[in-house]
Amino acid sequence: MVVFDMAGTTVNENNVVYKTLRKAINEAGFNFTLDEVLAQGAGKEKLQAIKSVLNVYANNTDDALANSIYQNFIVQLADAYAKIEIFEQANASQLFAALKKRGILVVLNTGYNRQTALSLISKLGWQTGVDFDGLVTATDVSKNRPNPDMIWHAMQQFNITDAKTVAKVGDSIIDIEEGKNAGCGLNIGITSGAHTSQQLQTANPYKVIDNLIELLAVLDNQ
User: Fold this and answer.
1) Looking at the keywords, is Hydrolase present (predicted)?
2) pTM over cut 0.90
3) Domain of residue 71, CATH code
C-alpha cells in the first residue's frame, strides 16, 4: 500500500489552503508570511497548524484565539474552493493506474477535515475504488500528524498488519515524520508542494523525488 498526502502531493490547488490560513491568521492582528505559515503549518491538521504558527512566531498559546481563527479559516476556505479550479499533480492518475496494475493499494490521507477532502476529490472527478482505494482524513482519527494514527487507520481498513509493506509519500516534513512514526518501509518526500528538497531532507526520508511518476522506479529498486 502507498499512502499519499493530498494538497501539494497528489492535488494541485496552488497553495490556496495555506494562503487562506495565512489570511485568517493575519486578520486576527498578525503579519506572517506565507513561507512562515508553510514552515510551521504544512501537513498538519489545520487547527494545530494555526496553534503552531502562533506559538512559534508570536509566543501565543491562546486556544480561544486559535479556535476563532480556525472558524474564520473554514468559512473562507469553503468560499475559496467554490471559486478556484483544482488540478491533480502531474502524473497522479498515471501513477495510480500503474500501482493498481501492480496490485498496490492507493490511499489518500490529509490534514483536512473529511468534508474539505471530499470536495477536492469531487472537483478532480476521482472515485473511490476506481482512481484510488481509500481516504483517511484528520477528522477520522483522534491524533493527527506526526502521530501515525491516519496510516494505521488505513492499514486496518485493508487488513494490513506489517507497516514495512507500506510507503508514505508527502510534500512536507511532517508527512515524513508521520510515515516514520507509523513504521512505514519507505518514506518519500516530494518537492511539488510545501517544502523544498533541503527542508525535506532534514526529516531523513528514504528519498526525495520531484515528480510522482518517479515513485515507480523507487519501488522497482526494492
Assistant:
1) yes
2) no
3) 1.10.150
